[in-house]
Amino acid sequence: MAIAAALSRALDSDLWWSFRRSPVTMLSALVALVCILGAALAPWLAPHDPFDLATLNLGDAFKPPAWSAEGDALYPLGTDDQGRDMLSAIMYGARVSLLVGISAVVFSTVVGVAVGLLAGYLGGWADGLLMRIADIQLTFPSILIALLVDGVVRAALPRELHDRIALFVVIFAIGISAWPQFARTVRGSTLVERNKEYVLAARVIGISQLRIMLTHVLPNVVGPVLVIATLGLSSAIITEATLSFLGVGVPPTQPSLGTLIRIGNDFLFSGEWWITIFPGAALIAMVLSVNLLGDWLRDALNPRLR
């Protein structure tokens, strides 16, 4: 009954009404859902396992898409230089891209919200110190911060550990480069909320500052955070693809869409265009759909636009 009541309230909400009124948003949600399901269910939906060396056949290398004269129906989007099915490689690569993007956004959200809450609620020297750190980091491009962090961590760790921890290093590098956006947004909202009557009343009855921040202030500042997180997901996916294209992202044994684009780029001008075009198209579709959903969420949660 509780689930049914919650579903009924959701279907009667302004958010659902706004979603149904926007064909572009509905199409974007459908594309994002297809990308997520295709990536999450790749082991069951993919026609082949592109990373099982026992199933690879170099004789199938450089096969064009199935609709071409020399294509093969077994490989709908063709194969790469190793004979791997491109459709399967894209589905598995999207898993890595989404995993890195979502994990990095979660990490940056937790760090940014915590810093923003502390800075906005405590004020004084804590606010000044934390925001100056955020301002300094914002002067550098996110990709530069991610490259710097990735390089420092790789230099500090033994070479034999690089491939095993590469995924975690990339997540940390991307996440630590994006927290200032969350921190500044939450800090601004917290400055407004901390002087309202319900916060003052909580102080009067003796509730601890930590509990006030977590149970009273935080629920009232999460709206903008959801919008930034949605838009930040697309930025994180692009950053990961850029790092992988430059050869400093995930290891070759766990290729993402950026890795596939880098591999295909070597054959782009020799006629094997599908090796890089299809992963690039998948990356564009994923990022564009997430961006459009973020734009809709920003407008839907803005009371001035209702």
TrEMBL record:
Q: Which GO terms describe its biological process?
A: transmembrane transport
Q: Which UniProt keywords apply?
A: Cell membrane, Membrane, Transmembrane, Transmembrane helix, Transport
Q: Which domain of life is it from?
A: Bacteria
Q: Which residues cross the membrane?
A: 24-46, 96-123, 129-153, 165-183, 225-248, 273-297
Which cell locations does it reside in?
A: Cell membrane
Instruction: Tell me, in one coarse class, where this protein mainly resides.
Output: membrane
Q: Name one GO cellular component term.
A: plasma membrane
Concerning its family, UniProt says: Belongs to the binding-protein-dependent transport system permease family.
Q: What is this protein called?
A: ABC transporter permease
